[in-house]
Amino acid sequence: MYGRKRFGFIFVVVLVVICVAVVAVFRIASNRLDSAVTIETAKSGLLRFGVEQALGVTAEDIVPVFSRYYSDASIELETGFFPDLFNRFLQEEIEAMLWRGKPGKYDVSLLEREKMNYRLEPVARSAIVCIVNQANPVPFLCVEDLAKIYTARKISWDNGNDIEVYLNGKDLRLQEQFLALAVPGDNRLTAWHAGSDEDVMRIVAENTRAIGILPFSRLGELKSAERSSSTFRVVPLCQKKGGAPVMPSQNTIYQEKYPLGYIVYYMYRKEKALAAGFGAWLAKEGQKGFVRSSLVPYRNPTYLIQLQ
Length: 308
What we know:
Radius of gyration: 27 Å
Shape: elongated
Number of domains: 2
Order of helices and strands: HEHEHEHEEHEHEHEHEEHEHHE
Number of strands: 12
Number of helices: 11
CATH topology of the largest domain: D-Maltodextrin-Binding Protein, domain 2
CATH superfamily of the largest domain: Periplasmic binding protein-like II
CATH architecture of the largest domain: 3-Layer(aba) Sandwich
């Protein structure tokens, strides 16, 4: 009887050891499989991607297209204003970001101070547009006129009414780009700060004396979202006095005929394989997505037509 009990005890112990060993082997194999699936390459892994708020709608349309091509790639899209996104890039909380215009000297100095191994890839084009109330008779403005208005050197319309000047006070990148393009000798704009692009549009739509500037990338979205869009209009701009005024459009911005156009850059950390792969895709295949978006492609995408 004692021998049987001892044998039964030994059998149970051996069985437990075997079960533990099987579970351990299964976990090791599972971990190896997970590692194989999530390993980062140019077409797989996780990318934390920061996008300026003004470019958010376009990014939301283009990112899923990349994910459909490469199902092992996961891109977490985070939108915000430039200062916060740039700081998060410096702190390595995001691996890539989409931003408007060339980096300034201060931005470059911060990147160099942090010894960031980064790359800037031009991927799209956009512009700054000027809007006035539909009842405002001004036919067009030159960039010089707009610069004077936003630095308080021109304070009245031709009919004598005071000019009320507005911009999105939270969008510092828009202000920086406007200064660089229209008022390069100045470093400060004089305008009432609205809380959002929507507020700028609403105020201009309700006020015949008001003028506002907006990102081209948000114009279509704002028009479709607000009933008041019919009570404001976009003003054609000319580069210099005597020049032909030009309306902003994908075509005029791409051909660099519209005077307040700028380049949209994709910045990424070179050591991140998926960030580099996504950037290469944006610069080539992704250009077709920009054609159908609120931005303008940086390069004219080529469509191949096969004749049977």
